[in-house]
Amino acid sequence: MAYLSKDLSVLAYANGFTLWHYTTADAAATVDATGYFNAAAQMLRIGDIVVANVETAGAMKAGLFLVSANANGVVDVNDLTQIGAADSR
C-alpha cells in the first residue's frame, strides 16, 4: 500500500510540536522508508512523533515513529520503536 492521508490525524499540538496517530496495513519497514510521508510534508515537522498501528491486516504492531527529517518535500521517520513487543501471560 501507500500513505493515505485519511489515516493520519492529530492527537495533540503544543509549543510547535504535534503528536500524530497513523494506522495502516503496511509493515513498519515500509512506513519508515524515506519518502513514505512525503504527501504530508507540509504538516509534519522534525521532532513530531507519530503513534502508529501498523500491519493492521495481520499481527498488528503499535509503536512510535520520530520525524527525523523533512526537507524539500522529502520526509523521513526513524524506525518504529515498538510498544508491547511481547505478551508472556
Structural features, described:
This protein has 89 residues and is mainly β. The protein has one domain (5-83). Helix content is 4%, strand content 43%. It has one helix spanning 28-31; strands at 8-14, 17-23, 49-54, 61-71, 74-77, 81-83. Strands 1, 2, 3, 4, 5 and 6 form a six-stranded mixed beta sheet that branches. A hairpin with a 2-residue loop joins β1 and β2 (17-23). The termini are far apart.
Which secondary structure elements does this structure contain, and how are they paired or packed?
Layout: E1 8-14, E2 17-23, H1 28-31, E3 49-54, E4 61-71, E5 74-77, E6 81-83
Parallel strand pairs: 2-3
Antiparallel strand pairs: 1-2, 3-4, 4-5, 4-6
Structural class: mainly beta
Q: How many β-strands, per DSSP? A: 6
How many structural domains? 1
The DSSP helix count reads: 1
Biggest sheet record? 6 strands, mixed
Evaluate the radius of gyration. 13 Å
Mean pLDDT: 95
The string of secondary-structure elements, in order, is EEHEEEE
Share of residues in strands: 35-45%
Bin the helical content. under 10%
Instruction: Report low-confidence residues grouped into runs of 5 or more.
Output: none
Distance between the termini: 33 Å
What overall form do the CA principal axes indicate?
globular
